[in-house]
Design a protein that fits this description.
2 copies of one chain form a homodimer. Chain A starts with a helix and ends with a helix. Chain A has about 325 residues and is of the alpha/beta class. Chain A has 13 helices and 7 strands. In chain A, strands 1, 2, 3, 4, 5, 6 and 7 form a 7-stranded parallel sheet that branches. Chain A is globular. In chain A, helix 3 packs parallel to helix 11 and helix 9 runs parallel beside helix 12. At the A-B interface, helix 3, helix 4 and helix 10 of A face helix 3, helix 4 and helix 10 of B.
């Protein structure tokens, strides 16, 4: 079957939620109907040794419940081996088609001449999602994204989900279709907030809504939210969580020479920022905040396993 | 002209030393005939941020006189930009066809499907020179090596010389020919100790001897030499230097989390080893040792410029 046909079929998705009667996701996972489910997710595993160490620390501290690997990055072998040796760790693939830092770059894992529409003149990924969106050919993007997932699996990782670095795979409608198609091909849930449905024609959005686990709310700290103590911006995010499936994305790293050099010239999501995120999720204050707001922490593994148990029916 | 012909012609070399009458290299550079010339050379620039910072520090301290960049490594863009902005820095290309660490890997900069004989199943370079030597096809190796030099030049680096990571380009006779050929193509001197001549048929060795700047002595610290203080092994090396062209290879790095993670499981040439090398070349004791032994420090730039001035004649 041609890949384009596969992509189309994949849009029909893997899971028919309607088969579950009137139970919502919380109930299907064994929680009360109006539970505020929250995945606390660390992006960018594999980006650097600093990020790898910080993510492992955050998992060990139970500060995060999930994370995802940037397979094309220099330090992915380290975290892939760690994930293989720690199969309980909830790890997905952070599908990567951009390389945003100035002096620390990476390209795809597919031979460069097979994915030239994704690469700049030095065969690195583009810096911005905009450049990617204008240049990317779907067939090349799909080849690279599948190679990233395949490589992680071959390394012994059992991915729990797919998500996307800087929203790479949301760069244009063709990439979005490919992204959703990968969910079907690999039997993995994808990060996809409900608000994104408005990008699609109403009929397609309706069909999607009934067939994938949509995030009801995605919270990620943005520079404009920072005013005063680090925890305060997160406090607002947590206190306004509603029942349903929520994800909070954090960026953790050890603020050291390596990370400072990678992020040089970029304060937003930079080295100091990431250390603050690590300190935050590891802190008793943050855990108290979750408890006070009756948050139920879950990971992507529970959703993947639920999804696949239903597929098997 | 076909590349194979170019390679052959390159073996005829660039420089006819015989045109210089009876002057030896020291005299051609303006020093007394029996001078003990020494290049103190830092390998592995670009390998990591730690190595980059240490090398810059060693240059600033005048602990080294030359260094070379591993272009395919993750941190090469950082040091290439630094070299571009510091054109006085004596920087060559550390031609790289191996990736020896366990969890921190790199492949070539040429599309992987064009250099498959140089790569393992994950498209990383082989770990050992032996594996490379058995598998490498000359045409693919030359394509990759030229791409490495071209990329550095395109980044604004003006290379002073070529040398080779782990002796990659000495892995088999075909690679040696390519290596020497690159000297001719790029008008750059190559690291080539006189003792290597014994690998070649006598006639060819004789011809080479008259046409390239051979190193009279190459000193690199080996594990078996270490016994007591770090400086003691180097002391022996320095005290036994003879008049002629000598190179001392050092491996400098900051002994930090990043470098320890790269070198995990490898004490030899590991993170602590490299910090000791950095401390050594920066120390007054080391500089006193050089002075006491009447060493004249030079860089590869002087040799390159001499070589090209003669070519122009």
């Amino acid at each position: 079957m041609k890949k384009s046909a596969l992509i189309l079929i994949s849009l029909l998705f893997t899971l028919s939620l309607s088969s579950q009667g009137n139970k919502n996701l919380a109930e299907l996972l064994g929680y009360p109907k109006d539970s505020k489910l929250l995945i606390i997710h660390a992006d960018d595993m594999g980006l650097s040794h600093s990020v790898n160490m910080a993510t492992i620390k955050a998992f060990d501290n139970k500060g995060i419940t999930s994370g995802s690997i940037m397979v094309p990055c220099p330090w992915s072998p380290e975290i892939e081996v760690y994930a293989k040796d720690h199969p309980g760790m909830d790890v997905g693939i952070h599908l990567t088609l951009t390389a945003e830092w100035d002096l620390y770059k990476w390209g795809g894992i597919t031979p460069a001449d097979q994915i030239s529409s994704l690469l700049d003149k030095d065969n690195y990924f583009f810096t911005s999602v905009e450049e990617l969106g204008k240049s990317a050919k779907g067939i090349e993007a799909e080849k690279e994204l599948r190679a990233q997932i395949d490589k992680a699996i071959a390394s012994g990782v059992h991915p729990t989900h797919l998500d996307t670095h800087m929203g790479s795979v949301l760069a244009n409608p063709e990439l979005v279709k490919i992204y959703l198609g990968l969910s079907d091909i690999y039997h993995l849930p994808v990060l996809f907030p409900r608000t994104y449905l408005s990008w699609f024609p109403p009929e397609m959005a309706k069909s999607m809504q009934s067939k994938i686990f949509l995030l009801d709310n995605l919270f990620m700290l943005e520079p404009k939210m920072i005013n005063g103590k680090w925890i305060d911006a997160y406090k607002k995010g947590i206190e306004t969580l509603k029942p349903g499936l929520n994800e909070m994305i954090v960026h953790v790293a050890i603020d050291n020479d390596e990370m400072q050099a990678i992020c040089k010239g970029h304060d937003d999501y930079g080295s100091s920022w990431r250390q603050k995120d690590l300190d935050l999720v590891s802190s008793p204050e943050f855990k108290d905040l979750l408890k006070a707001n009756h948050i139920i922490l879950i990971g992507w593994r529970q959703i993947r396993d639920l999804m696949n148990s239903k597929v098997a029916k």
